[in-house]
Write a structure and sequence with these properties.
The complex is a heterodimer of chains A (about 160) and B (about 575). With about 160 residues, chain A is an alpha+beta fold. Chain A folds into 2 domains: about 5-65, Arc Repressor Mutant, subunit A (Orthogonal Bundle), CATH 1.10.10; about 80-160, Glutaredoxin (3-Layer(aba) Sandwich). In chain A, a hairpin with a 5-residue loop joins strand 2 and strand 3 (about 125-130). The longest helix of chain A has 12 residues, at about 30-40. In chain A, about 40% of the residues lie in helices and about 10% in strands. Chain B folds into 3 domains: about 5-60 and about 70-100, Ubiquitin-like (UB roll) (Roll), CATH 3.10.20; about 120-135 and about 145-235, Alpha-Beta Plaits (2-Layer Sandwich), CATH 3.30.70.20; about 305-545, Rossmann fold (3-Layer(aba) Sandwich), CATH 3.40.50. In chain B, about 25% of the residues lie in helices and about 20% in strands. In chain B, the strands form 6 sheets. Chain B has a 7-stranded mixed sheet with strand order 16-15-21-20-19-17-18. In chain B, strands 1, 2, 3, 4, 5 and 6 form a 6-stranded mixed sheet that branches. A 3-stranded antiparallel sheet of chain B has the order 7-8-11. Chain B starts with a strand and ends in a 7-residue tail after the last helix. The chains are: A alpha+beta (about 160), B alpha+beta (about 575). Chains A and B meet through helix 4 of A and strand 9 of B.
Chain lengths: ~160, ~575
């Protein structure tokens, strides 16, 4: 099914593409970011749409999507939580934080694999995945909820209450 | 020293190379092999496999106030070696550069790269189709560590993946050199391949729902340095070391693509393109490459046939020759015509010319065979030797007299037809009605065919893989066809049939081989005068000026001129 891109979004994407006059291929990243920002994730249709837009073979777009963990290939929940697991945060308790959030938000991570890293709660409200360093190593464990940054996260219930 | 030549020391010996030469090519020209996977002279150089790491050095730059280094007695400056290695494939040489392809640094680099490549690669060469012709296997023996320190679990990747109708992929064997991706991007202009999940799980793949179905797809299996991409047609059919390889040329079209035929015990197993930068570079279309299964098939004609009382009976070759000669004597020379094939060699065309002379026949021509050019390597002329017909038979416009000949047959002016190596009923050049008025028809063809049904004498003709000779391609290049396998039964090459027919008609000629006829060509045909068969070599020689160019070769020349590829 072809992706339905609102005209305003398409206009913004077209504008982004003009920033790369030498090779349209260079615009793959910004276009994907725009699409993910709007749709929440990049599905197969979004890959095909981007390829057609930039006059590329779809595989050249899929290469980029599968390389960056920042691009989600499956739908996240309403609130997408990213828990840092790089060394400082890991030592400060990010794995415990992950378990605690999953328990309280009702997320089952047993199906998570290398290629499918996102787990979503049954009600679709929360989703979670591990992320690499979020650049706040002195205040671990840290996490992102959508675009909000949270440091020294201890009170998981209080955190989830903010996003309800 | 010329300005464009640079002094380069390779493993202690000084050489000179043109400015701009890649280090890896300089080494190759100096006879020193630098192992590599991702580098291919016809593709861009991403430098991603790291196998070609070498140590590099340059003359020391004097510190301020210091005197520059003194050259030695041969005029060469001392070299100060760099502590870290460089890749030889993507770097060009510099003046007075030193390259070390041996020594501790280079060797430890190769060991390290090999260890990484083998960490996840299956160690099951005995069951791999590439065994015996695998760069990974060869370099592992030569440059590898001999043992692995990898104790972890190997990454599992997809196996036996159908990436296209003619190609299968074993992703675990892939070493991510990206040659296939670059070939499809840069040469075939059909960029369907790519790497997804880059990192420790990198997989080569086509986009979901897409296929590697390009007519040049099998070239990716040729350039794959390991057993990852394999040809459906060849995989697990025959071990590489059992096959006898014959350098010859393709006869599917006028390009005359240089090929290697791999056969065992008279059976062809594989046809691969052979490098010739003036004809086909390193590539060939799948449709040409796979068009060989009929050679060893059940529908081959193996015995001569003579029509007796309306039915064909098998005959000895000699009887078929004598019968043909006797029948031809019954006709006036004006009642006989000869049609030969544009798939025949120059030598065979000369024999046809001599038969024409012996019989004092007026009409001789070839059946034209045209198709569409694919704008890569497939020529619109589907006869491999139309230029040979022009040069040897002296035809100005080959095929032009076929229509007039049909009329002459209908008017019964022509009563006997010698039709060699063609099946015009299937090709559509003639209808059964066109041939019906003939009183005598003799044909030769490799396969059983409807035209042969109408013939009074049928010779089983040898196909292109079963004979030697020369042909002239569309660009006017004279190239050699070499016999790869023996024909079945009593098959004879057209030159043999023609030779024996001329002899039976009373013209002794003392010809025993195709090479003898080539010598005769140099005497009979002015284009060939002074030429020796051995001058032609494996790569052919420019021979006629036709003004025709090959699109893929022209594009490659442009890329070389732009410096995008090395091109050798």
């Amino acid at each position: 099914m072809p992706l339905e891109v609102p005209s305003e979004l398409e206009k913004s994407i077209d504008d982004r593409i003009t920033h790369y006059p030498v090779s349209k291929r260079s615009a793959v990243l910004p276009v994907l970011h725009e699409l993910q920002h709007h749709f929440g994730f990049i599905n197969e249709d979004a890959v095909e749409w981007t390829a057609a837009k930039l006059e590329l073979e779809p595989i050249k777009v899929l290469e980029v999507v599968t390389f960056y963990p920042g691009f989600r290939q499956s739908a996240p929940g309403k609130y997408h939580i990213r828990v840092c697991r790089t060394l400082s945060c890991a030592m400060a308790g990010s794995y415990e934080l992950m378990e605690s959030i999953c328990e309280k938000a009702g997320i089952d991570r047993s199906g998570v694999t290398h290629h499918d890293p996102i787990a979503v709660s049954a009600d679709g409200k929360y989703s979670i995945e591990f992320a690499e360093c979020l650049a706040s190593c002195g205040s671990g464990p840290v996490c992102l909820v959508n675009d909000d940054f949270h440091e020294e996260v201890k009170d998981v219930e209080g955190l989830l209450k903010k996003y309800n | 020293m010329s300005e464009d030549l640079l002094d380069v020391q390779i493993d202690g010996v000084w050489h000179q190379f043109p400015k701009g030469t890649r280090m890896i090519e300089a080494c190759r020209q100096a006879g020193v092999e630098v192992p590599h996977y991702c580098y291919h002279p016809k593709l861009s150089s991403p430098g991603n496999c790291r196998m070609c790491l070498v140590q590099m050095g340059m003359p020391p730059r004097p510190m301020p106030g210091q005197d520059p280094a003194e050259p030695d007695e041969d005029g060469h400056l001392p070299i100060s070696w760099m502590p870290r290695p460089v890749i030889a494939c993507a770097n060009t040489i510099g003046p007075n550069m030193g390259i070390r392809t041996t020594g501790e640094l280079t060797e430890s680099c190769r060991e390290g790269v090999m260890e990484f490549l083998l960490a996840n690669h299956p160690l099951d060469c005995p069951i791999c189709d590439q065994a015996g012709e695998c760069s990974l296997q060869e370099f592992s023996v030569e440059h590898g560590k001999g043992s692995s320190r990898f104790r972890e679990r190997k990454v599992k990747k997809p196996k036996n993946v159908k990436v296209g109708p003619r190609i299968r992929l074993d992703d675990e064997r892939c070493i991510m050199c990206s040659r296939c991706i670059r070939f499809m991007d840069e040469v075939a202009d059909d960029p369907v391949l790519g790497f997804t999940d880059r990192g420790s799980h990198t997989v080569l793949t086509v986009h979901p729902g897409h296929e590697l179905d390009n007519n040049y797809s099998l070239n990716t299996a040729d350039i794959c340095p390991v057993g990852a991409l394999t040809s459906n047609d060849f995989r697990f059919q025959m071990r590489a070391w059992f096959m006898k390889e014959t350098k010859t040329i393709d006869t599917n079209c006028g390009t005359g693509i240089n090929i290697t035929v791999s056969a065992r015990q008279g059976e062809i197993y594989r046809i691969t393109p052979r490098q010739n930068n003036d004809v086909n570079s390193d590539w060939m279309p799948d449709s040409h490459r796979l068009n060989y299964h009929w050679i060893n098939s059940d529908i081959r004609l193996t015995e001569p046939l003579i029509k007796d009382g309306g039915r064909h009976r098998m005959a000895k070759y000699q009887e078929a020759i004598i019968t043909t000669a006797d029948k031809l004597r019954n006709f006036d020379h004006s009642e006989i015509a000869i049609i030969v094939s544009g798939r025949m060699t120059n030598e065979e065309m000369l024999m046809a010319r001599l038969l024409k002379r012996t019989l004092n026949v007026k009409d001789i021509d070839i059946i034209p065979r045209r198709g569409e050019s694919d704008n890569y390597l497939i020529s619109e002329d589907r006869n491999p030797n139309t230029n040979g017909a022009k040069s040897v038979l002296g035809l100005k416009d080959p095929g032009a007299s076929i229509d007039a000949l049909k009329k002459d047959i209908a008017n019964r002016k022509i009563k006997a037809l010698i039709l060699l190596q063609e099946d015009p009923l299937t090709d559509g050049a003639f209808s059964a009605e066109d041939l019906k008025p003939l009183e005598f028809l003799v044909t030769s063809y490799p396969l059983a065919n409807p035209t042969a049904d109408l013939a009074d004498v049928v010779f089983p003709g040898a196909c292109w893989a079963e004979k030697s000779g020369t042909m002239i391609n569309v660009t006017g290049r004279l190239q050699k066809l070499n016999k790869a396998v023996d024909g079945p039964g009593q098959t004879m090459a057209p030159w043999e049939i023609l030779r024996d027919l001329i002899q039976a008609l009373g013209g002794g000629n003392g010809i025993y081989s195709s090479a003898d006829i080539f010598n005769l060509l140099t005497k009979e045909i002015s284009d060939f005068s002074g030429l020796k068969l051995e001058d032609i070599g494996d790569q052919g020689i420019p021979f006629l000026d036709t003004g025709v160019t090959l699109p893929l070769v022209e594009r490659e020349k442009a890329r070389i001129a732009k410096g995008e590829i090395v091109g050798v």
